[in-house]
Specification:
Layout lengths: L2 H12 L19 H13 L2
Length: about 50
């Protein structure tokens, strides 16, 4: 896991996304999180 993944995971945990806590879910990968993927697609399709 790279530094950006570490930062993203730490931010997600502090924002209340318990599934991103690597202490309890060692297999968590931010790039494969369905919520992040859905939000990224929504952003892309928004035209911003």
């Amino acid at each position: 896991m790279g530094i950006l993944d570490s930062l993203a995971t730490a931010i997600l945990v502090k924002a209340g996304h318990k599934e991103a806590d690597r202490m309890f879910n060692a297999d968590y990968i931010p790039e494969l999180d369905p919520g992040i993927i859905a939000e990224a697609q929504a952003y892309k399709s928004s035209g911003l």
